[in-house]
Each structure stands twice: as C-alpha cells, then as structure tokens.
Automatic annotation (TrEMBL):
<dbReference type="GO" id="GO:0022857">
    <property type="term" value="F:transmembrane transporter activity"/>
</dbReference>
<feature type="transmembrane region" description="Helical">
    <location>
        <begin position="355"/>
        <end position="377"/>
    </location>
</feature>
<protein>
    <submittedName>
        <fullName>Membrane protein</fullName>
    </submittedName>
</protein>
<comment type="similarity">
    <text>Belongs to the ABC-4 integral membrane protein family.</text>
</comment>
<feature type="transmembrane region" description="Helical">
    <location>
        <begin position="817"/>
        <end position="838"/>
    </location>
</feature>
<dbReference type="Pfam" id="PF12704">
    <property type="entry name" value="MacB_PCD"/>
</dbReference>
<feature type="transmembrane region" description="Helical">
    <location>
        <begin position="262"/>
        <end position="288"/>
    </location>
</feature>
<keyword id="KW-0812">Transmembrane</keyword>
<feature type="transmembrane region" description="Helical">
    <location>
        <begin position="311"/>
        <end position="335"/>
    </location>
</feature>
<feature type="transmembrane region" description="Helical">
    <location>
        <begin position="777"/>
        <end position="797"/>
    </location>
</feature>
<feature type="domain" description="MacB-like periplasmic core">
    <location>
        <begin position="12"/>
        <end position="229"/>
    </location>
</feature>
<feature type="transmembrane region" description="Helical">
    <location>
        <begin position="436"/>
        <end position="468"/>
    </location>
</feature>
<keyword id="KW-1003">Cell membrane</keyword>
<dbReference type="Pfam" id="PF02687">
    <property type="entry name" value="FtsX"/>
</dbReference>
<dbReference type="InterPro" id="IPR050250">
    <property type="entry name" value="Macrolide_Exporter_MacB"/>
</dbReference>
<dbReference type="InterPro" id="IPR025857">
    <property type="entry name" value="MacB_PCD"/>
</dbReference>
<feature type="domain" description="ABC3 transporter permease C-terminal">
    <location>
        <begin position="267"/>
        <end position="387"/>
    </location>
</feature>
Amino acid sequence: MRNFFAHKGRMALSAVAVLLSVAFVCGTLVFTDTMNTTFDKLFAATSSDVTVSARSASDTGQTTSDNGRPPVMPAAVVGKVRATTGVKAAEGTVFSTSVTVVDAEKDSLSPSSGAPTIVGSWNSNDARTMKITSGAAPKNAGQVMVDADTADKHHLKLGDEIAVISAVGTHTARISGIADFTVTNPGAAIFYLDTETAQRTLVGQTGVFTNVNVTAAPGVTDAQLKKNVVGELGTAYKVQTAKETADANQKDVESLLDVMKYAMLGFAGIAFLVGIFLIINTFSMLVAQRTREIGLMRAIGSSRRQVNRSVLVEALLLGFVGSVLGVGAGVGIAVGLMKLMGSMGMHLSTSDLTVAWTTPVLGLILGVVVTVLAAYLPARRAGKVSPMAALRDAGAPADARAGRIRALIGLVLTGTGGYGLYLASTSSKATQGSAWLGLGIVLSLIGFVVIGPLLAGGVVRVLGAVLLRMFGPVGRMAERNALRNPRRTGATGAALMIGLALVACLSVVGSSMVASASDQLDKTVGTDFIIQSDSGQRITPQAVRAVKDVPGLARVTEYRTTTADYTTPDGRTLKDTDITAADPTYATDLRTKTVAGDLQDAYLPDSMSVHDKFAKAHDIHLGSKIAVRFKDGRTAHLTVRAITSSDVVIDQGAKYISIATLAKYVPAARMPLDQLVFATAKDGQQAAAYKSLKSALHDYPQYTVRDQTDYKKALKDQIGQLLNLIYGLLALAIIVAVLGVVNTLALSVVERTREIGLMRAIGLSRRQLRRMIRMESVVIALFGALLGLGLGMGWGATAQQLLALQGLKVLEIPWPTIIGVFIGSAFVGLFAALVPAFRAGRMNVLKAIATD
C-alpha cells in the first residue's frame, strides 16, 4: 500500500490505460444493451396479439421484394378472422418499405441512418403507439400524416406537399397531421395514408391487405388465438403471435448489433493488449528502481513469495481503481454514442439506458485480471533477485541467458509466422489461405514482440545515424539512452507497433481493392453510365422509362436479379440460387471473359450461361440442359450457351439469361424490378447525355447517375469511410501506446535523476536536456512505427494475394498514407515527451546529484 501511494503519479498513466480499455468494453456493452431494450419495447408495443400475413411475407414484417410490391392477401381474410372463436377485433392494414418519399423540392425524406421508410394505412394498432399532436389522420387521397421526428428533421408542417414513389407510381398528397411516438422511435420515417389510397399507391389495387392485426378476446391467450386462426385459415397464410413477431424483429436487429458489438470489443481487446505492455514496463521500471529496497527486505527475512505478492497487490490495486473508473466512463461513452446516433437520425432515449449487472462485473474482472497478469513477470523477476545482488544494485544473474533464450524464441516465432504468410500467399483456396494468414499474423506479431529487444539494437542505431547525429552530442546521448535498456525500448515500441501494423495492413488491403476494382472497370465495363440506388432499392418502371426517354443515348441496358431452384445434369437440386437477367446489350456493356461459347448466345430464347467453377462442379458443358424453377414462376429447361470465367471481380459467379426468357416463365405482376440500368451515349454526346440523365432523374432522388469516374470515386469513398471508422477505433490502442511512451520516459527520468544532475553540473543546459529526452522519445516512436508499418504491409500484401483469388489482382501500397503515419509517429514521440522533458528540465541540480 505504501509503495502504491508513493508512486501514485507514476501509476496514474497505467490506470488511465486500464480505464480506457475497460470503458470501451463497458461502453460497447451498455450501448448495444440499450439498443436491444429500445427495440424490444418498440416491437412489443407495435405487435398486435396475433398477426396474419401472406405466406411469402418475411417474419420481420419487412415488405421489400424483388418486384417492389408487398405480398398481399384478399380482403376476405379479414372477415374469416373476425368470425374466428376468441377474436375480439381484426383489422386489415397495408404498408410497404419499398418506397421513397420526397418533398416539394424532390429532396428525399428517407432517414440517412439506414433505418427504413415506411408508408402504410393508419390503423388502430398504430394508434396505440402514436399520438396525433397536430392536425388529423388522413381521410382521403389528398392527405398524408407524418411522424414528428421526420417532420422536425425536414422542417415539414401541415399543408406541405409530399410525394410517395413506389413501384406502382407516384402519389402526391398534403400533410394533414403529425403524430409523435409514445415509445422511442429508433429512426424510421413513417407516413400514413387512408386505407384505400395506401392500397392503390403501394399495391396498385384495392381489396387487398398486407397484414391483419388480430386482438384477442378477454381470457384468450395469444397462443390459443393463433391456434384458432390457423384452424380457420389453414396453412395458406403466415400466422404469428405478438411474441413471435417481436422475436423475429429482434433477431433481425440483433444480427446487426452483434456485428457492431463484437467488432468494437475486438478493438477494445487490441487496446487491452497494448495496455499490457504499458503495465509490464511500468512495473518493471518500478521494480528496478526499488532493487536496493527489495534487497534490504530480503536481507531482513522477506521471502521471494512475499516480495512477489507485494508487487502483485500493487497491480491488484491499480487494476481495481482503473476498472471502477472505467466502468463509470463506459456508461458515459454509451451515452455519447447514443447522442452520436441521434445526430445521424437514430433516436435513442437515455431513459432506456440499460446497464446489466454483468457489464460492471465483466469490466472489473477484465481490468483486474489483465493488470495482475501483466504485472506477474516483473513481480516474478523481483522475487528472483538475491539479497546481495540487490544490495550491490546488480541485475539478476540470469538476465543475459534469458535474453538469448528470448531472442531464439522470437526468431523461431517470427520465422514460423513468416512461413505461414508465405503459405497463405501461395494458397490456391481462399479458405485454406485465410487460415494460414490468420496463423501467420498471430505468430509474426508475437515473434516481433518477443524479438523486439534484439531488433531495437539495430533499428535504433540506424535511426540514430539518420536522424539524431545531426544534433551532435545531445543526439548521441538520446540514442544511447534508447539503447541502454533494449527490453524496455522493445516493449514500448511494440505497444505502438500493434496499432500501426493494423493501420498499414488495412490501408494496403483497402487501396488494393480500390485499384483492382478500378482496373476491372477500365478493362471490362463498356458503358458510359450506371444508374442505381445507393440504399439498395430496385429501380421503378417509371424511372427506367425516364432514362430511356433521354436523348443522345445509343443504348439502355436493364439488369435484374432473382433466385431459382436449379436441377443440374448431375441430378443435384440447388435451392434459392441467384440468376441474373439482362438485356442482350449487356454482353457489350460488360466485356467478361468466357472459357467456352459466346456470351451473346446466352441471351437467346431459353438459353443461359454459367461460370466455369459451377460447370466443373456439376458436369456442365455447352449444350447441357438445366431445369430452372423460377421464384414466383414456372420451370424452364434452359440450354447452356456460354461458360464464363470466374477470374473476374464484377459479376463474379453470375449466371446470365435474357429478360425476355425470364418474362416467359414469370408473370408480369411478379417480375423483379431492375437493380441497375446501364446507359451508353452516342459518340461525342457523353457530356450532354450525362447532364440529361441527371435532369431526367431529378424527380427520383433515390437513384444516382454515375459515369465511370464517379463510380470509381464512390467505391474509393465507400472503402475510405470504412477504413476511417476502423482507424478511429484503432485510435484507442494508439492513445494507450502513447501513454506507454509517456510513462516509460517519466519513469526513465526518475531512474536517471542523479545522472541528469551530473550532466547539468558539467554544462548541459535545460534546453539540451529537454531536447535529449524528446529525441529519445522520437526514436522509440519511430522504432515502433517502422516495425508496425513493415509488419502491416507484409500482412496486407499477403491478404491481397488471397483477394487475387477473387479477381482483385492489383497490389497497391498507399505510400502517402504509410509515409504520413511514419511522420505522424515522430510527432507522437514529441508529444509524449513534452511532460517528462519539462519535468526533467525543472530538476534542482544539487538535489539530483545527491539522489541515491
């Protein structure tokens, strides 16, 4: 206890590292638990006792479909349900999420957070969860009601005109009412029409419903009510209780939240790993500074176990204090994340803040266990120092031998990791290569950490020769200080190395993906413009017509996807397999490779193409027949006219047919809408056509027109945004690493107090002393940066070789990013040295010399 409080200033930075790591873990758990609570309440409140829907409807109630229209049931179902025993009330509703809503200026009113836009009929079930705060519910085709959050965000008011764009057409109405949620709205934009208008606008016909909301009579359970309804309707419709509907919705949300949660916990784990180096360095230096004290304790009778235990108790206190503070900070992080999501349009109420008892317990366990484990090696080393050696200030006699063993182990691990990376880069199968890549990354990382002290000697000398010698004697002293304890330098640099290795690896992979895709676009795409929805919506027929009416276009190609069941020549049946339908001009728009036949022939009647891997797996050759049972359609027996190469990026693994063939076997009402539309301008009219296309689609803001330059930029921006998010999460690990550099320098200054006093006494100025410490910090930071960037580029290059199996064959090293990170590391070193250098410069010379 006395040692802990005697060094409380030096423990503070280590405690901050524990605090940050625990806070990130607890913040992630509280945030995701709160989101689960919010959605639980929403789904529980909005679900009727029993819901009846079309058999083809999803369990979650989402109505997005290939043809842009929700699955419906005849209105007669409502009457049958009302007559069922145990039913108090039954009400038919219609709604769709395959819609876009725009204001009078044709600006989209859809959420930017990715939450759905829902348009439906106002009904009593919604009235339970929404309160009309102004105006009235819609009563005719000219009226619409909007939720209050959307109205506030887009400054909508009563009487404003909006338009609902669906696969059926565009319906215009004026806002008659604004309704507010009585439960938390996590960001959806909701619009209500009267029932008949909703049917015409979303489905294209009256007398149909997407759902029947059923209320149980008093004393009738939901399960019994469901049984009664199924008994009345049979199995022709989907019948779910409120719990089943809520569970299906929650499961859908949880799958997304789990990805977010485990990704964030992964970065928290990296921060914990970096924090281990900080704690090890801190306790190693504290033990070294107390060597004589430990020797005196041993001389008067303290056992090794007692010395070991005293260090571990300090670690226990450090871990406990840091973890307790981290749990509190984690709740603050969760609230901050909720506010951030609110600014993006996903509203989460702090009244739903959920702190499960497992969260603080897990935070405390993690923080304490990690801290104690990190302190174990320094504690064990302290216990092994003999009393006489300690009193002489000598190190442990086994240090040199331990260093040689460590170097040997590090070389073996690094070599094994390098061999794993080599096997990954030469693998012919992605799954096998991924396993080797993971093993290679783990072993090479551990190897570099273990071998760090050996590498420090050589790398620091090179950095010193290049960067520090120009500063004369001060630079040489900074270099020698960094080399004085290679183990300490290696551990400090390794903490920074981990974060920068991941940054370099992801930068290489991201840049290579963009370069490969751009290369493929240049080589294979023979069209000028690509029209698509960035939110994944299909393109409505009226928008396609608007594109085709644009003057100056040589051709317009429609592109659709759907699913089908295949029966191949080898007798196997493949369920729900993708198939692509396009106009014959797509063979010109996409210059894909073929290994047999001509792709143009795949667009002949009752013809198709397959890719070479599929053909090899199912014994398919030119002229083979494949039975294709289309989703919502009939079975076709198609002849294989072309076999394409799988060695591509765009449309890899696609199986092509013509839209005419698809239309022959799928009814017009069930035909899927276009996912993409390609347009090619007449020679010399590209600029005018580009402008005209944008103008033609002004009324459809959900669709974007891009030329090839725009498409490449969008791809680069998309990957860049993902990388920036990852870099932001990795910043936590880098901050902890910087704390490690600060702590190492601060403790190093204390350790060298007498030496600093002697240097000042013989003429070293304060300015020179501060510069020496800053240069030492810079060289340690650059040492870690060199190792991290080199290791990360090796990982990234290996990962690119695996991506080459998927057609991404261009390796691109983002040198501006790598050089920027390296230079930034020097500034990190300067920043980390500010406080230690300032404190060293303020030392009293005589007191420093008198220090024992």
